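Lab meeting, item 3. Inverse folding demo.
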């Protein structure tokens, strides 16, 4: 997609979130749980969402997706109840158009 002009590229959004969990969870199991939730809610059309877990420190993190799929990714994130057998409560902190701004505004980095 790097070769396309800016007007044809899908714009990305970055979602900052916080996970309240009984035990510590890792990035891989969170990514897997979110992918499974997206698949169960929206089927194979979630493949066009551009979803990717950018970073996760065990409590806070950032998810990247295309602007068109922002609502679907936020719904899937907030409906997660378990990650790798651990009960979780996800909280959305905010949405930004750049990862730098998302880190600075919502994660305090």
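The presenter then showed the designed sequence:
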């Amino acid at each position: 997609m790097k070769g396309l002009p800016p007007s044809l590229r899908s714009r990305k959004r970055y979602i900052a979130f916080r996970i309240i969990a009984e035990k510590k969870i890792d990035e891989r199991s969170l990514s897997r749980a979110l992918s499974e939730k997206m698949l169960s809610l929206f089927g194979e059309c979630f493949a066009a969402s551009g979803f990717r877990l950018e970073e996760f420190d065990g409590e806070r993190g950032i998810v990247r997706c295309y602007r068109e799929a922002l609502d679907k990714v936020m719904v899937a994130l907030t409906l997660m109840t378990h990650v790798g057998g651990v009960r979780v409560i996800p909280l959305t902190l905010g949405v930004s158009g750049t990862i730098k701004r998302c880190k600075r505004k919502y994660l305090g980095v």
